[in-house]
Amino acid sequence: MPELQQQSEDSVDGARQTRIRKKKSKFDTASTEAEIFLFDYGTVVIWGMTESQEKRFLSSLKRFEVDKLGMQPW
Asked: Which burial class, exposed, middle or buried, applies to 57 when counting CB atoms under 10 A from its CB (0-12, 13-18, 19+)?
């Protein structure tokens, strides 16, 4: 029985590694750098940052605001 259990564990580990390999080989979503686009009209687009990093970056931009728009009633 210990052999059967070991084979079962090995096949589970092998399947898990195969899924991980397939996931990484299809689409590499791990970004090593953040991308930030700042547009003249005030829009900021950010990729590759955590939410806390985004908030910290956006708060650092506040000192450059000229005319801040209020909340829009949608």
From this structure: middle
Predicted model pTM: 0.49
Dihedral angle over CA of 31, 29, 14, 10, nearest 10: 60
Q: What is the dihedral of CA 25, 27, 33, 38, to 10 degrees?
A: 170
Domain ranges in the chain are 1-28, 35-63
Distance of CA 67 to the CA centre of its chain: 31
Along the 74 residues of the chain, how does pLDDT read in single tens digits? 555 555 555 555 656 655 555 555 566 666 578 999 999 888 899 999 999 999 999 999 988 888 877 777 76
Residues 6+ apart with CB under 8 A from 6: none
